[in-house]
Amino acid sequence: MAPVHTTPQTEPMTDPGTDRDMDTDRDAREYDVVVLGAGPVGENVADRTRAAGLTTAVVESELVGGECSYWACMPSKALLRPAIARADARRVPGLRAAVRGPLDAAAVLAHRDEYTAHWQDDGQVGWLDGIGADLHRGHGRLAGPRTVTVTGPDGRRTLTARHAVAVCTGSRALLPDLPGLADVRPWTSRKATSAHAVPGRLIVVGGGVVATEMATAWQALGSRVTVLVRGKSLLGRMEPFAGELVAEALTEAGAEIRTGTSVASVTRENGTVVAVTDAGDRLEADEILFATGRAPRTDDIGLETVGLEPGSWLEADDTLRVPGTDWLYAVGDVNHRALLTHQGKYQARIAGTAIAARAAGQPLLADAWGAHAATADHAAVPQVVFTDPEAAAVGLTLAGAERAGHRVRAVDVDLSAVAGAGLYADGYRGRARMVVDLDTGTLRGVTLVGPGVGELLHSATVAVAGQIPVARLWHAVPSYPTISEVWLRLLEAHRDA
C-alpha cells in the first residue's frame, strides 16, 4: 500500500558511498545528519538533507509515519468524512430523502483501517529506503553533542552526526492528575482514532480540536456523547463564533455539551466509567476520552546530556536550530510553535535546507521570507477543524491581534448570504471574519465557519502570509456561484464600514 500520508515524492537516490559501504560495524556509525523520529516531520527533514547529498539516519521506536499517519490526521479524517458527507447530503433538496438510517459503522472503521495500512509501516519504510535514508529501529537518546545511542531489537549502537541532530519526536496526549486514572484505562487521542467498536456512551473531556472532532465522529457513528468543557465554550483559541456554531450543531446531532465543568474523579465500576464533576454530578459511560492537552515527547531522549531539561519543550530559532548549539535542531511539535502536521512539515523543509546550507559552508539567506526562515509559523498558521460545520482559521483572531498591539477592525459576513453557499447546502449556516490591520491595509487573520469552508482556507492563508493589501484583493475575482464569493462580500463590508 502507498504511504498513508502525503510525503515529498523524491526519485530514489544512489548513496554517495558512505554509510552503506563504509563498514560492517553495527555498534558505531557516522552520518552527516541523524534524525530522531520518523513521523512526517522527520521524514521531511531527511528528504531535504538527502536531496542535498548528506548521509542521513532516521531513528524510530514505533511506526514509520508517526502520529499523523496512524493515530491522528489520517484515521480521524477517515472517521469524520462519512459523518460530514452524510450531513452535507441531508442538506441538499432531492437528495435528503435518499440518505436515511445510520452510518455503517463497521464499514467506516474498516475504511479507517485501510487508511492506516492496518498499522503496518511497510510503505513508509519503502519510501525512506527510496530516498536513501537509513532507518534504525529502536529508542534513540542523545549521548552528548552530535551523538545518539539507539537501543533496539538487534542490540545497541551509537550514531554520530558530523553536522546535525534533528529532534522530531513530536508530542503525546497529556492526562490530568486524577487519582486512579490509569486503572480506568481512559481513551486518549490514539485510542479515539483506533478503537474497533463504537461505545454506546462516550464522555469527552475537553473543548479543543481533538475533543470536537472525536465528539462529531463518534456521535455520528452511534455513540451518545457528553462533552465536558472546563472553559466557557468550544474551540477557545478561535473566534468565539466558531465554537458557538460547532456546539449548536453537535447539540442538534444529539450530543450534550456542558461548559464550565471539570472532572473531579473518575472510576470504572463493573466495566462502566463513572465520572463525577466538580459540581457533584455523576455521569456514566462505556468509555471516557481525555482531550486535555499535549506534552512534548522529550522526557527520555537524553536532553540532560547536552545541558537541556528532560521533558521540556525545546526552544528553536527561525532556522529551527536550538539556541546555544551549532548542531541541534528541534522541529515540529517539540518546539511548541505550532502543533500541526502541516506546520511541522513546513518547519522540516526549512530545517533541512538550513542544515544542508551550513554543511556546505554556504551563507543563509537573510531574507525573512527566504528558504532558511520559518517565518510563517509566527503569523500565518492555518488550521482546519473537521467538525460539522468545519471551522477554518489562519493568522490572528481579533482578540489576539488587539493583544499584540495592532490597530485592527473585524469585518464579518453571514455565509448564508453568499449565493454559492445556498447552492452548496439548503439552509446553509456559517460565518466569515477577516481581521484588517488599519495601519498596513493587510489582513492579520481570517476565520471561516460553515460546511465545506476548509477548502477555502488556502486562499486566506496566501492573503495573510503574502501580506496582500486589501485594495489589491479587490482584483482577485471569485468565481460565481461558489462559496469563495465570500471574499467579495467581506471586501464590500470592509468598504462600507
Number of helical segments?
Answer: 17
Mean pLDDT: 93
The CATH class label of the largest domain is Alpha Beta
Counted up, domains total 3
Spell out the CATH superfamily of the largest domain.
FAD/NAD(P)-binding domain
Named at the architecture level, the CATH assignment of the largest domain is: 3-Layer(bba) Sandwich
What overall geometry do the principal axes of the alpha carbons give? globular
Determine the strand fraction and express it as a percent band: 15-25%
- What percent of residues adopt helix (DSSP H or I)? 25-40%
Rounded radius of gyration (Å): 24 Å
Distance between the termini: 54 Å
Spans of at least 5 consecutive residues with low confidence: 1-25
The third-level CATH topology of the largest domain is FAD/NAD(P)-binding domain
Task: Report the strand count.
Answer: 21
Characterize the largest beta sheet: strand count, sense, and whether it forms a barrel. Answer: 7 strands, mixed
Structural class: alpha/beta
